[in-house]
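One-letter codes give the sequence; the fold follows as tokens. Both lines appear below.
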Amino acid sequence: MKSHHHNNAMTATGSDNSYSSLNDEEKHVANMCFMTIESENEVQSLYDKSNPTYNELHNSLESLYDELKKLGLKYSLLKKNHACLFVEKKTLENKTCIGIDENKKVNQL
């Protein structure tokens, strides 16, 4: 993008020779100016993109709300699954303890 601005500036001055005849300090200043112009254009284009219309904001909000509802349903399902797994874990722990106790009784006989 810099070369685009640079080429336009050279075209505006008439030829490449006028740029090449500048000393290093003048070239540096000219390049800084081109970079500043480019930066201002980028900031402007970012501002344009970050300034959405009401409808764009509304559509984004609706999309986010739909996503929130989907995630809420997933969360509820995962919470129920967790509760079932927790009960199953406790049941298996109890069975394991009972099995260990019975095994100790058998070994004591």
